[in-house]
Amino acid sequence: MISTIIVDDERLAREGLKGMLKEFTDIQIVAEAADVDEALELIDRHKPQLLFLDINMPEKNGFDLLEELIETPVVVFTTAYNEFAIKAFEKNAIDYLLKPISADRLREAVQKARKQIEDIRVQAQRDVLQPDEKVFIRDGDRCWYIKLEDIRLIESAGNYAKIHFDRYQPLIHRTLNSLDERLSNKLFFRANRQQIINLNYIDKIEPFFNSGFLMYLKDGTKVEVSRRQAVKFKEMMSL
Q1: Which residue among 69, 107, 142, 191 is least enclosed by CB atoms within 10 Å?
Q2: Boundary-marking domain end, from 125, 152, 174
Q3: Both 85 and 66 in a single domain?
Q4: Would you say 145 and 130 are in contact if contact means Cβ atoms under 8 Å apart?
Q5: Using an 8 Å Cβ cutoff, are 41 and 58 in contact?
Q6: Alpha helix positions (H), the chain
Q7: 163 and 214 part of one domain
Q8: pLDDT, tens digit (0-9, with 9 covering 90-100), for 162-213
Q9: Domains: count for the chain
Q10: Nearest-angstrom CA–CA distance, 36 and 57
Q11: Do 24 and 68 lie in a common domain?
């Protein structure tokens, strides 16, 4: 079953989409939300695999919601406006459905979501890499075979990830979420939506905006740790 949350400020739109989704026996709607704050709470609680997300909502919009998430479900945007399509796909949405949603387009979106979720599942089943292991990295014509512990920082670049080690910053065709699944939390920590840091490279930590942290790595890089991740860091690392 694919656990799913619908986020839309219009009750009739939520009800209509729920009705259409009854066609798909593997879609399990675990919750629905009318605004971003409610959605954030429900996503933290249920950790859904799939999100049907409206864009225009009061106070905060669908893009604001994604900015606050660390682990993002597969996202299908649902909206009455076509001008947000480019930005939606920049946020790695799997599809963009215009209201009123047609049955054919919904079937197409669900099929895309199924494939993406299966790819994520297969990736997650691969063994977690241990801190003392070595990994092969290739970027174009250049190749490296390095120890995981020598990687100080990994940054998101859309569907790619930038690996920082020594003086090099190669790009590999992996998302940050897929790498996060394989990296040991004994060595690496997901600081925010865009960055994973090597705990051994932390030089100092300062309190930061909205109860977060500002971490300084040994090479001088500054990394902002979101409030939610700051709580996790304290739980993991405190005496």
Answers
A1: 142
A2: 125
A3: yes
A4: no
A5: no
A6: 11-21, 36-46, 62-68, 85-90, 103-125, 176-182, 227-237
A7: yes
A8: 999 999 999 998 888 888 888 988 899 999 989 999 999 999 999 988 888 9
A9: 2
A10: 8
A11: yes
- Tokens, residue 44: 């933290």
Half-sphere exposure of residue 157: CA atoms within 13 angstroms, side-chain side: 14
Comparison of pLDDT for 127 and 56, the residue scoring more: 56
The CATH number for 79's domain is 3.40.50.2300
Taking CA 197 as the corner, what is the angle to CA 193 and CA 199, rounded to the nearest 5 degrees? Answer: 140
**Contacts of residue 120, Cβ cutoff 8 Å, sequence gap at least 6:** 49, 74, 177, 178
Dist CA 206 CA 92 (whole Å): 32
7 and 83 belong to one structural domain: yes
Tokens representing residue 233 in the block: 């860091």
Domain extent for 207: 134-237
- Count CB atoms within 10 A of the CB of residue 138: 13
pTM tops 0.85, yes or no: no
- Give the number of residues written for the chain: 239
Strand partners, 6: 32, 52
**The two structure tokens encoding residue 224:** 């902002």
Rounded Cα gap, residues 61 and 143, in angstroms: 42
- Number of neighbouring beta carbons within 10 Å of residue 72: 17
CATH number at residue 155: 2.40.50.1020
- Of the three residues 82, 105, 125, the one that is the final residue of a domain is 125
Is 194 in the same domain as 143?
A: yes
Do 75 and 166 lie in one domain? The reply is no
Model confidence at 222: pLDDT above 90: yes
